């Protein structure tokens, strides 16, 4: 290796070292310790006993655990496409310059700048049965948005989309601004209308951005803050466990029932499942490059 290349490699290592150290100390090491705890019986009071694979065997017969996996899957199946297209649609709306566009962008992003606990308390107040602002504005006094098992999960999904769509709008907006204007001019000269320009220019050029949004949305839906914070504040997993996601179920096992080893085993299974799905997405799309 030449002296210049060694110098460049040293500079790169120096710049990467702080982030690498942070990832090691605050992500990799805690994840490894959590995996190790899954092989023990830990009650949170200093009692630790080797359990081997017992915590993992218990998961096979835990009906509530598999129900929570199903709820998480349903939540992700609704949230990911809704948040994706909401963010893309908003980005297309505010991509052009018009008076007050900066204010509109800031207003759309504002929910994402607020704590999810505050968001949860706000929507809890708005969705109060009979007396909440939503009930008064819509006239649906008999609808219990958070108390009906058939509506509670959908309500959480819609609140999550409202919370995250401003952030995804900014990601898509960055992707749109990276598309050379010459491509649109060439499409216009060839007679392409708005739909043709979107289909043949915007959408193909947004594929890497779309892949990033898709993967981060999936991770947010499964292990993100809204999969726990909103559930904790708004429904506490109810009614009738209809909004108990996997991460909330793991929290219950650890901090309500003192089964820290079992909760760690659940989280390990969740991470493996999420890693497998994410890896499959990378393999199928070549990391967002959909070309041959």
Automatic annotation (TrEMBL):
Keywords: Cell membrane, Membrane, Transmembrane, Transmembrane helix, Transport
Domain of life: Bacteria
Compartmental location: Cell membrane
Gene3D superfamilies reported for this sequence: MetI-like
Gene Ontology terms: cellular component: plasma membrane
Topology class, membrane: Multi-pass membrane protein
Organism: Saccharopolyspora dendranthemae
Keyword Cell membrane: yes
Domain ABC transmembrane type-1 stretches: 69-278
Primary location group: membrane
Record protein name field: Carbohydrate ABC transporter membrane protein 1 (CUT1 family)
Spans through the membrane: 12-40, 73-94, 106-126, 151-173, 211-234, 260-284
Membership in a protein family: Belongs to the binding-protein-dependent transport system permease family.
GO biological process: transmembrane transport
Signal peptide limits: none
